[in-house]
Amino acid sequence: MQATGKVGLFGAAGAAGQSIAAALGAAGRDYRVVGRSRGPLEAAFGRDPHAEIVTWNPDDPASIRAAAEGLQTVIYLVGVPYDQFAAHPPLMERTLAGVTAAGVERFILIGTVYPYGRAQGNPISEDHPREPHTFKGRMRLAQENLVLAAHGCNGLSTLVLRLPDFYGPCIERSLLNGVFEGAATGKRAQMIGPLDVPHEFIYLPDIGPVVEKLTRTPAAYGRWWHRAGAGTITQREVARQAYALAGRAPKLMVAGKTLLRLLGLFNPLMRELVEMNYLMTEPVVLDDSALTKLIGPIARTSYEEGIRHAFDAAREAAAPKAGTNGSTANAV
């Protein structure tokens, strides 16, 4: 492992950025968080003496370069609205140009399973074909191809770290977040089905230490890697465990592909979920033995422990609401 200079987290305010920042801070490393708005960055990182807060305009090449000045490594976590995936490739082109102009040496894209398309048998290793059959998959593929093509150009080394679906405490964009909120409040959990297909999830706080290690592992660059979860679990089992922690029987409202299509007539987000519903019926499960061979053993939070942490956080978040109304205001 090599010692490294300062790391910048572009798109830092999300849950993955906070996990990586926590790992950098725990290692005693200074880092820069970059986002469009200062408020969310201050809320998430303002109390960490290791954090430098910088805002940027990702549409402005000069702003991108300025945000990257003085960094050795950039970790890219920038999201776009789910119905605007066509923005991913041009945004990546501008970002790569800006970080290269700033003299950044290493670039890590936190990626998804979308570029693979349908799995040709699970679990899959990194040699699985990248043959996306969806628009979102093609946009993600174009994005990561830009990253990989930049490796070795103008002093830049790049890699892609591919993750499965994630969950954890108070992560609103997780497929499972509604389960924990429902269990904590007694409400019915809204879920996307089917619920009985084994699916891989990663406990998001586990990501940070791996990414921190990759920032100081030169041998990792020039390819993509998998970071797997703790095996597979069905969504129904997640719900059973979460509601059991609350002493309740599961109360679930499940939207399958047909209902998503119907809801999509009125809700743009629901319409976008239809295309990716194949991942619920034909999940992609990752094999990360190559990464383990490179960096050594990887800590994996069990589903039982992760579900408990996520439920506890949801219950704590719901408590002030209940107190404000004098009782369990969200209970059914």
UniProtKB/TrEMBL annotation:
Residues 10-207 form the NAD-dependent epimerase/dehydratase domain. GO terms for molecular function: aldehyde dehydrogenase (NAD+) activity. Signal peptide: none annotated. SUPFAM superfamilies: NAD(P)-binding Rossmann-fold domains. GO terms for cellular component: cytoplasm. InterPro entries: Epimerase_deHydtase, NAD(P)-bd_dom_sf, NAD(P)-dependent_oxidoreduct. This is Sugar dehydratase/epimerase. It comes from Paraburkholderia xenovorans (strain LB400).
